[in-house]
Design a protein that fits this description.
about 325 residues; mainly alpha; 3-stranded antiparallel beta sheet; 16 helices; about 5% strand
Length: about 325
């Protein structure tokens, strides 16, 4: 059966200029001869205008791929070129971090080797504060955090005062807490009041005080956090509960039991609440074995009763299967 694929082969020259050569592909195997070249090409792109819906394998050298990245204005040409070299692309990093498309900027940022991070600290700081895309700002801050030559304190405080993107804010908050934990208090209160689900896991991971305000915030988020952040939040919540007071654990057992036993509740929320309640019981049991504290024993018995109540009254067959062996 006859077919015709009209394409334009792009020939890129060392001076950055490009010539397009129209070609019609109509045979299974076909040789193409291009003669009117003005000089030795730096590289070529078979589908020079990116019109074919096809996977095209081109056998090019590193230098040809690098020239493709430098000279082609097409996004896919640049992605293909950057992904197909084998020498780290260190000579493309500066151009990459200034590319028009944000994924190319992030690609270059994440390609910086740890051994060369110190050379790019000023540029990464600039990207963290002023890049128009939040993904790039986040990636730049993440790379800065991995540098032993960089103190993130001042930059993180500036980010927390000006940034609007929650992923960037969350990362800055965690970094600031790691180097200057005494400075995060005002930001915690401000962000708790914003009530953003995207920050709930981060906030729980740095909350330390057994205050009524913190307990109220955690209880509300445990009940209402959206499913996208649900598992990360509860994973951090289980860490938060380790070593907490009997009052905090008792209060937690009340709202976790409410969530896990709610007949019409979301199955995933019910299950993760039950897992968390069970983890509290396991941790408390370990504490009691070494302390023989009566308050700990009473709290543990209370939580075990709640677990048994949930297991006994669950009607969802999937959850019933999951809860097998949890009854104490």
């Amino acid at each position: 059966q006859n077919f015709r694929l009209p394409i334009d082969i792009a020939i890129y020259y060392p001076d950055g200029s490009v010539q397009f050569h129209p070609v019609v592909i109509n045979e299974k195997k076909q040789r193409i001869l291009i003669e009117d070249l003005k000089m030795k090409p730096a590289t070529y792109v078979f589908d020079g205008k990116n019109v074919l819906l096809a996977m095209i394998n081109e056998n090019k050298t590193n230098e040809q791929y690098k020239a493709q990245f430098r000279f082609s204005p097409n996004y896919m040409d640049k992605m293909v070129a950057f992904s197909n070299t084998s020498d780290g692309n260190y000579d493309l990093l500066v151009q990459g971090m200034n590319e028009k498309h944000h994924t190319l900027r992030s690609l270059a940022i994440n390609a910086i080797p740890d051994s060369l991070l110190f050379q790019y600290l000023p540029m990464l700081q600039e990207k963290t504060l002023s890049d128009p895309h939040s993904e790039v700002r986040h990636d730049a801050l993440m790379r800065l955090a991995g540098s032993e030559d960089f103190d993130p304190g001042a930059l993180c405080k500036l980010i927390l005062d000006t940034e609007k993107s929650y992923p960037v804010i969350g990362l800055a908050l965690e970094l600031l807490h790691s180097v200057q934990p005494e400075k995060v208090g005002p930001y915690i209160e401000k962000l708790k009041n914003e009530d953003a689900d995207q920050l709930a896991g981060t906030l729980v991971s740095i909350l330390t005080e057994d205050s009524p305000e913190n307990s109220e915030y955690i209880s509300r988020k445990a009940k209402n956090i959206n499913l996208y952040q649900l598992f990360d939040f509860y994973e951090r919540l289980r860490e938060y509960f380790q070593g907490k007071s009997m009052k905090t654990l008792t209060d937690a057992s009340e709202y976790l039991t409410e969530i896990a036993s709610f007949k019409n509740g979301n199955m995933y929320r019910k299950y993760i609440a039950m897992v968390t309640l069970n983890k509290i019981a396991e941790d408390l049991s370990s504490r009691y074995e070494t302390s023989a504290n009566e308050d700990e024993r009473k709290t543990l018995v209370n939580i075990i009763d709640k677990i048994n109540f949930i297991v006994k009254n669950e009607t969802n067959p999937v959850l019933k299967e999951k809860y097998e062996g949890m009854e104490k």
